[in-house]
Amino acid sequence: MIEDGTFDKFDNLENLILNSNKIQNMSSEVLTEKLGSKLKHLNLNDNEISLSSLNFKYLINLKSLSIGFNHNIGKELKSSSTWEFPKELANLTELYFYLCKITIIPDNLFKNLM
Questions:
Q1: Can you state the percent helix, strand and coil of the chain, rounding each to 5?
Q2: For residue 80, what pLDDT is reported?
Q3: What domains appear along the chain, each with residue ranges and CATH number?
Q4: Which of 41, 57, 58, 99 could be 69's S-S partner, Cβ–Cβ 3.0 to 4.6 Å?
Q5: What is the pLDDT of residues 87-96, one digit of tens each?
Q6: Which SMART domains match (predicted)?
């Protein structure tokens, strides 16, 4: 479990790599406003997360999101045809979600990223 505000101690953190840590979810207070003001690259590859367990609210400067090899994402997209990336991620230029066992992509998934 990642403690709330853990990364707020870093005033200039732009790249956060948390891959292969068996993360299942994150409190809404991990990806905070302070962190989001500087963070440009977030790597959550090879964990056990689902999209709905992440709070993207403050990640307005994020350019790259890597969430590959999280099998729960494929299951989640298959069961929820209404999930969409939030408008706060509109500045994304790179999105990686490989090996998530995705079998269906909801029509609105990328609506807010365009």
A1: 25, 10, 65
A2: 82
A3: 6-113 (3.80.10.10)
A4: 99
A5: 999 999 999 9
A6: LRR_TYP (SM00369)
Q: Which residue has the tokens 């905070």?
A: 32
Structure tokens at 55: 């709070």
The per-residue pLDDT for range 17-32, each reduced to its tens digit, is 999 999 998 888 999 9
Report the half-sphere exposure of 80 (CA within 13 A, side-chain side): 14
Structure tokens at 86: 């939030």
Tokens 């994150």 locate to 26
How far is Cα 100 from Cα 73, in angstroms, rounded to an integer?
6
Alpha carbon distance 40, 50 (integer Å)? 20
From CA 114, how far away is CA 19, in angstroms rounded?
Answer: 27
